[in-house]
Amino acid sequence: MAYTTINKSTDYFNTKLYTGNDGTGRSITGVGFQPDFVWVKDRSNAFSHGLFDVVRGATKTLNSNDTSADDTVSNSLTAFGSDGFTAGANAIINGNNNNYASWNWKAGTSFSNSAGANGASIASTGSANQDVGFSICTYTNTNTNTIKHGLDVVPDVIIAKTLGVSGSWFLGSEKMLGGWNKKLNLNDTGAVATETRPFYPGSYAPTSSVFSSDQSVFGAGGSATETMIAYCFAEKQGYSKFGSYIGNGNADGPMIYTGFKPAWIMIKRAIGGTDNWVMFDNKRSPFNEVNENLAANTDSSTNTGIKIDMLSNGFKCRVAEGNTNVAGNTYIYMAFGQTLVGTNNIPNNAR
pTM above the 0.90 mark? Predict the structure, then answer.
């Protein structure tokens, strides 16, 4: 059993479902905490994903399914609240009678780090929660720089993107991809590729204080100066798990151990083919088989053709298909969930 100091995972991650009403000042509550990172998707229509965070500020919108720059949308997410957020009338977040999924993470402690401090070559500001291994930071990148991430441990996953100009979403992870000289793009279906510049391997690999980044690969081109956003994650026992598995091409698919009951899972085929970044949660599909999924890289509405089981200690693939389970292919995943057994010694039950 996976013991953990995080007894109530819903204090730090929670999925909130709601139906839009096309109104201004719509209060979405029931998250259980003030979210610092909100990811919203219309489940019933082909609208873009909306990604919002407290570091950039309310109304600042990014789309995981495209390369577009950060945009100010005045009637999108207009405020972060103590138990959720406030939505305007924009269809990306609050279309009339449209069904939405919002995934909410808590960061927490704001930080501001000057150039030269804590091993960083440039300044950064952000919000970090070291207890659950999540931080958000923004910085102005020029060529190759080192940036404070705020986690106090080496990140397991970094997802970064340009803000002022268009550019791909880069995901780096030694744990999932086998080295910091590998990358995937969240906005497309491409397989893992070798690329040293996003987060740099070797002596420039992320440390417990900083990560490295070369602006020239992110979209502005050359040595242009550009403001960036990075979401950094460090695995925490009993709460988050980042890894890979090999498909077996069978309806009795591989079982992936996480040590907790997943509440949210994102899976991507990394080696062997090209497929979507499919996302599952325990609110849209509260019972097994879990078959309601959305894709981070597309604006498509809910797909029900991909099936997994969410178990008390992991998840299991339940269909032979490209997004999750082709024999011999390598898949990566990110999972957040509910403690199996915490310091309160209360175990979770199987689904």
Answer: yes
